[in-house]
Amino acid sequence: MTTAPSAPAEPGQMTHREILEALTGLLLAMFVAMLSSTVVSNALPAIVTDLHGSQTGYTWVVVATLLTMTATTPIWGKLADLFSKKLLVQAALVIFSLGSVVAAIAPNMGVLIGARAFQGLGVGGLTALVQVVIASMVPPRERGRYSGYIGAVFATATVSGPLLGGIVVDSPLGWRGCFIVGIPVAAIAFVVLQKTLHLPTIKREVKIDYLGATLIMGGISLLLVWVSLAGTNFDWISGTSAGLVVASLVLIGAALWVEARVATEPVIPLRLFRDRTTALATAASVMIGVAMFGATVYLSQYFQLARGMSPTEAGLMSIAMVGGLLVSSILSGRVITRTGLWKRWLVGGMVLVIAGIALLGTIDATTSLWVVGAWMAITGVGLGATMQNLVLAVQNNTAPQDLGAASSVVAMFRSIGGSAGVAALGAVLAHQVTGGVKDGIAQLVASGKISQAQLEQMQHSTGDIPKISELPPAIRAIYEGSFGEAVGHLFMVAAPFAVVAFLCILFIKEVPLRTTMGPSVAESEIDAGAVATGNPADYPGYEVEGAGDAAEAADIGAGEADPVGRSR
Q: Pick from 506, 483, 470, 78: which is nearest to 301 by CA?
């Protein structure tokens, strides 16, 4: 008789209470990772001024963390398949904390950028490993009930980061305090995990793919340098762009060859992409990254430059989108846990994302804030039903030995898509705003509404955005109108990417969520005879510590042979 899913009685399985205790430490770690970016956003102008930095330095304070975080995400994921996940999360917390200390005491921009790059190593680990550890603790069927907590952390970090950053910058700590505030949280997370996280120890022969890891990091780093700096430090179509793209493609091509033909334990096992769900979910993640990060990151700029809000007020406006994401994440997770069906939530979520982005494409500097908030809420609801559940679909089709690699691949490609979207749409935004302002000012000069002195005051070559509140009213109106119209246009540009993500999701085959930690017979690469016998010798390279008992091995085999979607 089929019953509602409950915690499977598998060997080494944690109880619901133990999971919640360990989850506290994991969510604190995730909060630290997310906060590291949002809390610094309002401090960047003060940092560049105090350390006598340039606009290029301003960019690299952000790009440095992004590079190392994205490039190392698959490596952390693969390490999670080889070593203790608990120790890896704690190591990532230590790396993050050390980078934060150096950033807080940085005497110049060079040291700060280096510290941010080192900090990104830890952020990449936390981003990849938290998802992997949760997947290791909880079967896919039960995992939905915990996704609401992840959504809550995302919402809290997104909303509180800019607010906290503004408060800290204005306090006696100054901008350096923004790098300090996360350290106590990281320390608490470290201690909580030490006391509460108890996963089964897996013994495997470890062979690290150093060559593949180096080539992957190099290829991704060059790609992100190009999409992050093109259009500002050099033209999109230029010798520098061509050199970076060619070098990136050569390194990525070499990495694919090493992963397919040379590596014994590849960082990114290419066999993962033989699974249709993994391949389509990865493609959808890239498109969602472009559409979501590429467009929504400029909403803060819209509120500050087109609507005259302070950074704190702009942060409060994000509650509309984050609130929708939180509610949707909790609701979809709980229903998925009860039913075991997830594709309808992905499809429905992407429909709402497309609708929300298209509606946001209609905004300008005069649109009612209530209307803007409503369109943001619709987008947030769609994202809440899509982001976590896309990862869940991949994890459900992945064998335990590849869980870390598969989870991190989805996160990595979403980050790459987001980085490319931010850079490309940023170039579109800059081009449109520049053109709109030039045309507007030319009309003001022609009509005699601004003087020659005011015009000369506006002419500068630094590329800095002027302080809107200090501009003459007529010029201020031009800037606000140009930014408002340009940001609305960005969402229209982003909408087709969301449509492509929707099409990818439509072709994903739904496999009801497992109630066990191992894959189903249909999805596993383990030989059917090996599953039936439960003989440890039939699981090459894997030995549950202390699992010499044949009966325990048989229990594990029987658990993995349990039919998909059936309660044990």
A: 483
- pLDDT tens-digit profile of 409-424? 887 788 778 777 776 7
546 token code pair: 């202390």
Ranges of H-type helices in 170-238 = 177-180, 182-196, 210-229
Continuous H helices in 465-547: 473-506, 528-533
* Largest distance between two CA atoms of the chain: 91
Residue matched to tokens 């470290």 = 190
pLDDT band of residue 522 (cuts 50, 70, 90) is very low
CA angle 517-521-523, nearest 5°? 80
DSSP 26-89: HHHHHHHHHHHHHTTGGGHHHHHHHTT--HHHHHHHHHHHHHHHHHHHHHHHHHHHHS-HHHHH
Burial 543-556 (b: 16+ CB within 10 A, else e): bbeebeeeebbebb
521 by DSSP, 3-state: which? coil
Q: In this predicted model, which residue has the larger pLDDT, 369 or 454?
A: 369
**Interatomic CA distance for residues 245 and 248, integer angstroms:** 5
Nearest to 319 by CA among 292, 300, 291: 300
Q: Write down the pTM of the prediction.
A: 0.72
Mean pLDDT, the chain, as a whole number? Answer: 76
CB 60 within 8 A of CB 113: yes
What is the average pLDDT across 424-433?
A: 77
Question: Residues for the chain: how many in total?
Answer: 568
Q: Which pair of tokens denotes residue 2?
A: 């089929």
Written as one string, the DSSP assignment of 113-176 is HHHHHHHHHHHHHHHHHHHHHHHHHS-HHHHHHHHHHHHHHHHHHHHHHHHHHHHHHTSTTGGG
pLDDT of residue 27: 87
Q: What is the pLDDT of residue 460?
A: 44
User: Who contacts 186 (Cβ-Cβ below 8 Å, separation ≥6)?
Assistant: 28, 29, 32, 93, 96, 97, 100
Predicted local distance difference test score (pLDDT) of residue 377: 92
Task: Tell me how crowded residue 167 is: count the other CB atoms within 10 A of its CB.
Answer: 17
Ramachandran angles phi, psi of 160, nearest 5°: -80, -25
